[in-house]
Amino acid sequence: MRSYKEIRGILQGRITSHQWQPGDLLPSEQALSEEFGCTRATVNRAMRELADAGLVERRRKAGTRVIQPNSHPATITIPVIRQEIEDKGQSYRYLLLERLEALPPEDVRTQLGLSDNEKSLFLKSLHYGDGIPQQLDIRWINLCAIPEAAEESFADIGPNEWLLQRVPHPNIEHVFRADQATAEEQRLLQLDEGEPVFTIERRTWIVGEGITYVRLVHPGSRYRMATRSSTEPTFS
To answer: Per its UniProt record, what SMART domains does this chain match (predicted)?
Structure first.
């Protein structure tokens, strides 16, 4: 019998692969429980988590539909570095440095709510503007929450942009820091000796389940953060 997490992952995959288009009515809970050989309660929980993630809309007696792109009232508050760089008129380039499935360190397991034996996907990547490194992305993705990440190479798309296509409205926690660069960060970001970095540590989750934990490292001289009068942060 499949778990609600497995069912949620399968249904989410059908939505993000556009097998089910925005506005499409999903099969009934009874039909899905028969398809997956499980109880309706298990399907119901999977559906609730898809709704909490902003992927479907559930209405009593009207069924569950895939959400239209502009029908969700929430504003995406996670910036996409490719868009930021292109908005400044610079040419964008992405480079995947490392990809592996592994057991995360203890602090990451705590952030994602994982047990000691649950593997996650580790990714390290660089984002360039006009050939100059602008951001180092060091990330763990919870494969229990996003199982389809195990099938994605991330060779051609950054993990942040890929995740936003699948979970557009997660819960978010940010921690901002001014740090001294490590030797690796200095080398990868092509920093001068002693040049500081600006870091963002971000944790995202839905319905209490961690999705990703990431450390974003930026050269202090090439990055700034501003706020609008609405107090929503913008990044550049």
So the answer is: HTH_CRP, HTH_GNTR, UTRA
